């Protein structure tokens, strides 16, 4: 198949038409307006006792698809089933756990018989905690984590660094029944918040690795996929995966990416948060479809394209409010289109339009516990890791690990202090209320007796 002939199917034609009209913001806004007609309820998420369990105030699970915990005092967790019957796929999309919801997160893993977690964000991004560190920081029994509130324990058994992502194998123990299960984690570490990787190639390699493990197949429980809010990067991953399954089964001529996204948004709000992420989804689907061609050669995948992700992501714009971002135009010109192996460099000279964006709605918890944007990239440069070798690489890696550990400890300390202050305020609330009630009653009785 010639790479010069880009008009090979309707998906590519649609993609190039949107590019030529510079219409990604309009297409994205149209999808958001269509979703506003759904009218699904968020009653459980809005209850007073459940609001603190949401990382962001405007990212809440629909009632009709929310995951319900069984062995817990509260059955609520900010998570939804996302089912795509046409692709025979079922996922659980959720937010990054908070410090006090880590037990709920692992209870969901246990109750849903989940075999794999796909983590698409870093723990700390832009100097803010985007997800509580929910797994042991060392290998072996000595680093075991025990969640007494849900009667579970977790041990990290194996860890592998694959440059732009990592894999971890856990053993999850049920302390009530004595049973245990293996759970894998695939941690993608170079995907910027409100942005996209520089190229679909590395992302497709990551997707291939996950698929080959079989964890996306419907034979076991649904995989749990999360970033910070569980809608941006998580939604992009699921959309590309589902669309490529449909292409493999029915052919790319029978695929409509926008309709697939609209169907997914019937299960969890706000999936895919920016026009850039929608555009990247098109590119990844088109590139992935090329690889389904029997004539596609593995040697066409350039080694350097896989490592090009490290340190090359563009700094994201100020994040828009999560709910409003579904319908509003982006607050900056769209970045240059990443180069695609199959489509070539498709940058056009049209002038991008822009509009002012307001800052994000702050989360319901203290800022030290949850960040003001859902999926953000760390701003530390990492290109030097890919460029260095030998002792220099080891020294740099150790130094960066120490810096990251110091930052994690500092953020955890701030989180503990904030949580301690919240506990003090909550402990004082009841006695102060009772005291005020007695004073008010005394004043009323005194006024009554006096008159």
Tally of strands: 10
- Overall, the morphology is globular
Overall number of structural domains: 2
Strand arrangement in the largest pleated sheet: 1-2-10-3-9-8-7-6
- The CATH class of the largest domain turns out to be Alpha Beta
Question: How much is the radius of gyration in Å?
Answer: 24 Å
Helix content: 25-40%
Q: What is the CATH superfamily label of the largest domain?
A: Protein tyrosine phosphatase superfamily
Class derived from helix and strand content: alpha/beta
Number of helices: 11
| Main sheet characteristics | 8 strands, mixed
Strand portion: 5-15%
What order do the helices and strands follow? Answer: HHHEEHEEEEEEEHEHHHHHH
Going by CATH, the architecture of the largest domain would be Alpha-Beta Complex
Mean pLDDT figure: 80
Segments where pLDDT lies below 50 for 5+ residues? 1-7, 302-318, 323-327, 334-362, 364-390
Distance between the termini: 98 Å
Organism: Spodoptera litura
Domain Tyrosine specific protein phosphatases: 201-279
EC number: 3.1.3.48
Region (Disordered): 309-399
Main attributes?
single chain, 451 residues, alpha/beta, Protein-Tyrosine Phosphatase, Chain A, 2 domains, 8-stranded mixed sheet, two-stranded antiparallel ribbon, 10 strands, globular
């Amino acid at each position: 198949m010639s790479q010069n002939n880009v008009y090979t199917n309707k998906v590519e034609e649609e993609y190039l038409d949107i590019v030529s009209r510079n219409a990604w913001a309009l297409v994205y806004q149209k999808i958001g307006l269509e979703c506003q007609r759904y009218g699904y309820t968020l009653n459980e998420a809005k209850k007073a006792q459940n609001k603190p369990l949401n990382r962001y105030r405007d990212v809440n699970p629909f009632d009709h698809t929310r995951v319900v915990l069984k062995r817990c005092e509260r059955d609520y967790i900010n998570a939804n089933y996302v089912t795509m019957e046409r692709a025979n796929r079922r996922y659980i999309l959720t937010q990054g756990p908070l410090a006090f919801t880590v037990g709920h997160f692992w209870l969901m893993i246990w109750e849903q018989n989940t075999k794999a977690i796909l983590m698409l964000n870093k723990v700390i991004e832009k100097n803010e905690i985007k997800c509580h560190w929910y797994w042991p920081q060392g290998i072996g029994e000595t680093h075991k984590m025990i969640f007494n509130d849900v009667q579970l324990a977790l041990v990290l058994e194996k860890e592998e660094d694959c440059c732009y992502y990592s894999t971890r194998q856990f053993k999850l123990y049920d302390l009530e029944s004595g049973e245990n299960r293996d759970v894998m984690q695939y941690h993608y570490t170079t995907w910027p918040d409100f942005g996209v990787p520089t190229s679909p190639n590395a992302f497709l390699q990551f997707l291939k690795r996950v698929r080959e493990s079989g964890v996306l197949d419907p034979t076991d429980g649904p995989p749990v996929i999360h970033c910070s809010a569980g809608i941006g990067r998580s939604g992009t991953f699921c959309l590309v995966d589902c669309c490529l399954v449909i292409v493999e089964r029915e052919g790319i001529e029978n695929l409509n990416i926008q309709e697939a996204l609209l169907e997914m948004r019937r299960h969890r709000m706000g999936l895919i948060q920016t026009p850039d992420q929608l555009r990247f989804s098109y590119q990844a689907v088109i590139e992935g479809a090329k690889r389904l061609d029997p004539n596609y050669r593995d040697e066409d995948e350039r080694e350097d394209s896989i490592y090009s992700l490290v340190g090359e992501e563009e700094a994201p714009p100020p994040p828009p409010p999560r709910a409003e971002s579904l319908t509003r135009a982006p607050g900056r010109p769209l970045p240059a289109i990443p180069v695609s192996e199959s489509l070539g460099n498709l940058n056009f000279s049209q002038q991008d339009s822009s509009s002012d964006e307001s800052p994000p709605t702050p989360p319901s918890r203290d800022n030290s516990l949850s960040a003001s944007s859902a999926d953000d990239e760390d701003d530390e440069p990492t290109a030097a890791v890919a460029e260095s070798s030998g002792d220099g690489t080891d020294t740099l890696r150790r130094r960066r690990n120490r810096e990251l550990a110091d930052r994690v400890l500092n953020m955890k300390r701030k989180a503990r202090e904030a949580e301690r202050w919240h506990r003090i305020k909550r402990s004082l609330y009841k006695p102060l209320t009772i005291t005020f009630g007695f004073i008010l009653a005394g004043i009323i009785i005194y006024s009554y007796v006096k008159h």
